[in-house]
Amino acid sequence: MSRYAYESCAEEADEADATCSATIIDEMAVARVAPRLPGDDLAKRTTDVFSALADPTRLRILHALSLEELCVCDIAALAGVSQSAVSHQLRLLRDRDLVAFRREGKRAVYRLADDHVRLLLDQGLAHAAEGSEPPPERSTVGVGA
Asked: What's the sign of the alpha-carbon dihedral 135, 116, 102, 97?
């Protein structure tokens, strides 16, 4: 496909809906990108991760756990919801490999599963805070990964 055809497609884009007014496929670009797209299983697992972040309570839970390991009772107090509700949310986050826990006597102490979760959370908060308030400060004291 010529560069001219690509540019004319961009120039013809309707400003209201930001789509091309003509169907012009750059077959070389498609051939370069297609093999790099995630397969069905990876795409599903990735959308599951993002859907877990799409709930304000789960986001607060993850952010709290990015600051410090916490037991279910602590998380419930911070999130302002019942222990039962927190347990339900933590089960979903465990199923998506976003959090892990260990037993300390009668307590279940939770932490982020790994640094990938911390980076994803940090990037999401930074992106959402762009142009508004800065993301909360982070302390690495007592943080388990």
From this structure: positive
> How deeply is 122 buried, as exposed, middle or buried, from its count of CB atoms within 10 A (0-12, 13-18, 19+)?
middle
Tokens of 104: 């300390």
- Tell me which amino acid residue 111 is: R
Tens digit of each residue's pLDDT (9 = 90 or more) over 87-99: 999 999 999 999 9
- Per-residue pLDDT tens digits for 15-60: 567 777 888 899 999 999 999 999 999 999 999 999 999 999 999 9
Question: Which helix (H) or strand (E) element contains residue 33?
Answer: helix 27-33
Domains of the chain by start residue, with CATH: 3-36 (no CATH), 40-129 (1.10.10.10)
